[in-house]
């Protein structure tokens, strides 16, 4: 059975949590199990900015983050959620995301399907979804949908239509085909440029995975104009870095 893990980042397990739960019946119908990780139930300390995870692949902080990251790596799909707090994501989620800094340098969730969810009593739902989408892009994930609810729609369960592409991607795994957006290609090229020109550990990782010669993690379906744009951006940005370091 395929397994999906949902990250719940609200301390009170109310509207956003209920939205996650509403997806469970349709996932079960598709033969997919759902496990919800409530970040508030785990010990997650602030990132110290020591860069140990980037430089040595080890985090000196002793808490529950490593265990959560391992679970995400083993999942067939991820539902990333947050309520809107002060026009942004919850503090629990931001603290957790900060601890995934290494995944910006060496992405470990490449091609894994992700569904984004948020609820709000006011506005800024799109801004929160945009931020989570950016983070998921840095992690190398395959974006399969965005779900949002407000005070007028809190009682609406996640629909079959909203879950359609996510379920399909979870079922097909890495065989799923998708065309990256311009922003995703640019983000990839920024990460690749830094990896290939700054840290030897990053460079080794990207070469071993073959990302150093690609315009995106999966480039078979990337349109020609995006390939041209990606390669041009990489060449330009690399020249700037080499010029500044010389």
From TrEMBL:
The UniProt record lists the keyword tRNA processing: no
Span of domain NADPH-dependent FMN reductase-like: 3-146
Superkingdom as given in the UniProt entry: Bacteria
Protein keywords: Flavoprotein, FMN
Protein name (database record): Flavodoxin family protein
Signal sequence segment: none
One example GO MF annotation: oxidoreductase activity
Organism whose genome encodes this protein: Turicibacter sanguinis
Coiled coil: none
């Amino acid at each position: 059975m395929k397994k999906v893990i949902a990250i719940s980042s609200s301390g009170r397990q109310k509207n956003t949590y209920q939205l996650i739960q509403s997806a469970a019946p349709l996932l079960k119908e598709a033969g997919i199990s759902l496990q919800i990780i409530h970040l508030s139930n785990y010990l997650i300390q602030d990132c110290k900015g020591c860069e140990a995870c980037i430089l040595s692949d080890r985090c000196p902080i002793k808490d529950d983050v490593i265990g959560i990251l391992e679970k995400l790596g083993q999942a067939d799909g991820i539902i990333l959620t947050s309520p809107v707090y002060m026009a942004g994501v919850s503090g629990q989620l931001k603290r957790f995301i900060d601890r995934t800094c290494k995944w910006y340098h060496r992405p470990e969730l490449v091609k894994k399907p992700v569904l984004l969810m948020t609820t709000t009593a006011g506005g800024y739902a799109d801004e929160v979804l945009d931020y989570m989408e950016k983070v998921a892009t840095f992690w190398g994930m395959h974006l399969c949908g965005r779900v949002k609810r407000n005070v007028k729609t809190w009682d609406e369960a996640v629909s079959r239509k909203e879950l359609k592409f996510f379920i399909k991607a979870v079922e097909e795994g890495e065989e799923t085909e998708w065309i990256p957006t311009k922003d995703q290609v640019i983000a990839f090229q920024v990460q690749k440029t830094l990896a290939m020109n700054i840290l030897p550990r990053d460079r080794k990782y990207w070469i071993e995975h073959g990302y150093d010669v690609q315009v995106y993690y999966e480039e078979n379906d990337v349109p020609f104009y995006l390939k041209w744009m990606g390669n041009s951006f990489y060449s330009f940005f690399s020249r700037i870095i080499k010029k500044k370091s010389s």
